[in-house]
Amino acid sequence: MNRFYTELKEALETSEGDIWAETVLSGEHAGEKYLLHARPAEADRTAGFPDVFCERIGRTPKLIVCGAGHVSMPIIRMGKMLGFVVTVIEDRPKFADNARAAGADRVICEPFASGLAQIRGDSDSWFIIVTRGHRYDSECLEAILQKRSAYVGMMGSRRRVAIVKDQLEEKGISRDLLDAVHTPIGLKIGAETPEEIAVSVMAEIIQVKSTQNKSDGGKTGGYSEEIISCILNAGNSGEDPAELQKVLATIISRKGSAPRGVGTKMLIIEDGRTIDTIGGGCIESEIIQKALLMMRTKAPDFQICRVDMTAGEAEDEGMVCGGVVEVMLEKV
Question: pLDDT digit string (tens) for 110-139?
Fold first, then answer.
């Protein structure tokens, strides 16, 4: 089993494209996991294994902001609130310091071209161009369009944007690629202040992210770095000795209203600690108890549990959700 997580960790660190995983849900091979680097065909998923959970695994989303002017500051703060790892590229030291103060995870104080050369880009990279002039916009956009990305947005007037696009088209970049850039950036909400503009930009990113997740089979939240490290015993051995058992809980189906989506994961450790959440409340409490029972008895190492939140008990608890979820529990 650890081989799967070792390969997954390496793939998340090195691959630019989508990563898929399959888990066999029933039969003598129940619990077996396979890592794939392309979307499996329906026939492949069902051949030999009629019951398979297939997920497109998302990485931790990365927000790359080119420019550290007034609009960038609330974008940085909102990006952090929304769970992005935020990198800012800015060639002016004073403005770079402002980005650090705003909470950016990484600030590259270098010319934009050399700064972007340090960014690999992948299907979970979100680029925002908010520089101080079209010369820098053009430089950034040209470099970014050579990379894999989930989103590219550029701030600027229609005239400024048109100039940049024409310049890059003359350099050989296709018009289709240029027209796919989100510009003017942000949703049209009448934003005027830097904070309002940041809201419109991040709202557009949320909208694009949601649309992408609903298409092409959907992308799950994947495995957090903390979960993978704990499974591989890469953390502090004093706090998490290898002999402690662990169970990984994954939501594999959802009907009706439920707090978290398919693919959401939580790791339960034998001493009662947990990493991440599958939604809290009654559902999480029940799953934790089942996982602890798996570790403390001779129960099977792989189980699928059904939690019904439409019953009276859920209503008595005051839960706002009223759906049914299936959760896969596997010792890791």
Answer: 999 999 999 999 888 999 999 998 889 999
Q: Cα–Cα distances in Å, from 118 out to 40, 106, 114, 149, 203? A: 32, 12, 7, 15, 27
Nearest-angstrom CA–CA distance, 124 and 148: 9
pLDDT for the residue 12:
83
Residue 326: what are its φ and ψ, rounded to 5°?
-110, 135
CA distance 255 to 322: 9
Tell me the C-alpha distance between 97 and 109, whole Å.
9
pLDDT number for residue 317:
53
Q: Answer yes or no: are the C-beta atoms of 277 and 266 closer than 8 Å.
A: yes
> 72 and 88 in contact (C-beta within 8 Å)?
yes
- pTM of the predicted model, to two decimals? 0.75
* Residue range 203-233, pLDDT digits in tens: 999 999 888 766 555 556 678 888 988 988 8
Residue 172 corresponds to which tokens in the numbers above? Answer: 């050989």
Phi then psi for residue 24, to 5 deg, are -75, 130
Q: Which residues of the chain have pLDDT under 50?
A: 43, 45-47, 235-238, 240, 320
Delimit the domains of the chain by residue range: 2-57+221-331, 62-214
Q: Is 219 helix (H, G, I), strand (E, B) or coil?
A: strand
Among the four given CATH numbers 3.40.710.10, 2.60.120.1140, 3.40.50.720, 2.60.40.10, the one describing domain 62-214: 3.40.50.720
The b/e string for 165-196 (b: 16+ C-beta within 10 A; e otherwise) is: bebbeeeebeeeebeebbbebbbeeebeebee
CA distance 113 to 129: 13
Phi and psi dihedrals of 245, rounded to 5?
-75, 155
How far is residue 137's CA from residue 161's CA, in Å, rounded to a whole number?
A: 9
Q: What are φ and ψ of residue 193, in 5° steps?
A: -80, 160
**Cα–Cα distance for residue pair 275/226, rounded to 1 Å:** 7
> 316 Cβ partners below 8 Å, 6+ apart?
none
